[in-house]
Amino acid sequence: MHASQGRSAGLGLALASAFAFGGSGVAAKPLIEAGLDPLHVVWLRVAGAALVMLPVAWRHRDLLRRKPALLVGFGLLAVAGVQAFYFASISRIPVGVALLIEYLAPALVLGWVRFVQRRPVTRAAALGVVLAVGGLACVVQIWSGLTFDLVGLLLALAAACCQVGYFVLSDQGADEAEQAERADPVGVIAYGLLIGALVLTVIARPWGMDWSLLGGSADMDGSDVPAWLLLGWIVLIATVLAYVTGVISVRRLSPQVAGVVACLEAVIATVLAWVLLGEHLDAPQIIGGAVVLVGAFIAQSSTPKAPAAGPVAGSGAASSSAEAAGSTEGREAEVSESDGRDAGLPAGRSAP
Q: Which residues contact 1 (CB under 8 A, 6 or more apart)?
C-alpha cells in the first residue's frame, strides 16, 4: 500500500513537472514579443531561479570541491546553452515545433554512443532515431521547402545539441563503484543555475535591458497579461518547481514510467501554445510530432548500458541509474532542460 501511494505521488509530481516545463515557452514568448531580447528573458529566468536556489547551493557547497568540472559543464550546456538557444528559437518559430526539435536529443545521444564511444546500438534504438527524424520532417513540412524560419530551426537544433551535453554530463559517477561520491542532483541543479546566471550575465549584459517593460503588460493571443506575472511563472514554476518536482518524481518511479511522462512535456507545450498563443499545427505536423515522441522514447528506452568494468566517459542519462548514454529518466532525472533544455535543462531540459 505504501509503495503504491509512493508511485501515485511520484506520477503526480512527474505530471506537475512536465506541465511546469512545458509552460516555459508559452510564458516567455509574449515577453519576447513585447520587446525583451530572448537572452534577457533567459537571464531573468536563470538568475531569478538561482537566487531562489541559493540555500540549496549552500547546503551542497562541498560540490565545488568534489565536482567542479561537472558543475561548470552543467551550467554552460544544460542551463545557459539549452535555454538560450531554446528561447532564441521560439522568437522565430512556434513553441511546439522548437520543443519537438529539441526531442531529437535522445537520437543525438545514440550518435555519441555509436560514433564517439564506438559502442554498438540496438536495432530498436536505431528504429527510434529513424522515427524521430522522420517525424521531425513532418513537423517542419520539409516537402514544402521548410515552412518555418531556417535560423529558428537551427537554433532549436543547437538547443538539442546542448541537451546532449546535459545527458553526457549527467551520468558522471553513475557507476556503482562511485555511488558514495555521486553528486546530489538537486545540488548540481542549484550550482548549474548559479554558474549559468554568471555566464549569461556576461553574454546578455542585462544592464542594457529595458526594465520598464517588466512593469507593463504582454499580449497573449489578444489578452493583456502583466509582464511580472509571466516572469514569475517562468522563474518559480517553469524552473524551480519544474526541476525539483522532476528530481523527486524520478526517484519514486521506474525509469520507463519517468521516460513516458517526460515525453508529455512536448505535448503539453504544444497544447498550451495552441490554446494560449493561437499557434495551430495542421494534421501532418501533429502526426509527425507524435512520431517524434515515440521515436525519442524508443531511443531512450533502448540505449545500451555501460560496460560493467567501469564508468564510460560521456555516457548519458539524466538519471540516477547506471544506464550509460541516455536516459529513460529524462531531463528532470538529475543534474538537466530545458530543456534545456532546457536547463533543461529544461532540461531540461532543460531542459527549457
A: none
